[in-house]
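Dear support,

I submitted the protein below through the web form. The confirmation email said the job was done, but the results page showed an empty box. After a refresh the structure appeared. I'm attaching both so you can tell me whether what I see now is the final result or a partial one.
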Amino acid sequence: MPIWNPWHGCHKISAGCRYCYVYRSDAKYQRDSAVVAKNSSFDLPVRRNRKGQYKLQSKGTVYTCFTSDFFLPDADQWRSDVWKMIRERSELRFLIITKRIDRFQVGLPEDWGEGYENVCICSTVENQDRVDYRLPILLREPIRHKMIVCEPLLEKIDISPYLSSAIELVVAGGESGNEARVCDYFWITNLREQCRDANVAFHFKQTGARFRKEGRVYVIPRKYQHSQASKARLDLGKGKSMVEF
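What the results page shows now:
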């Protein structure tokens, strides 16, 4: 699973950011997560070896900008160069997950058209307020591959008005970390039902650290959060998406 983080650092903007894993990780090294800076790996996709071959070779998805937000205002000055690299590496698939879908148009390439075929844009939603704000924007933007990530899921949400053939995959999961808020099994299965009714693929990614089922809260160690979600066998039609999880 190749990860490309052209820059690092972010600013919290909504409830889902409260216990951000980037802030949590940076705190261990006394690093200020609010300081946004280019990484040494900024040009990773276009680096070549001595034979002139690209160093980054992958048949899977390149997880892009996972220690920041791709549409962060602080990164406006660098984004055009990143788009150029993504266009150059058209044989790779790039996944971009954002809480700032309302800034999607800022610095968009002139040749974007209806979207690059090798780019999937995913909007996160953690509660109903963010569902009703972000998803209408996601739906109307010219993007060839669209996804929704309901993570960290903080309450029961209704995304059914926004589920259509334009949405390739919905991913749901709880919150990790020592301060994680509870994720409820019913919230997950309810989302699954919404996706099933709309014929949209669904993936239960992780339980989170505190997972409630039938009124009981289970504390689940990090190393088991993905495997426990997998054991629930709730996934639907994952093959419809260009992105693998």
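Response: this is the final, complete result; the empty box was a page-load delay. The longest strand covers residues 167-173.
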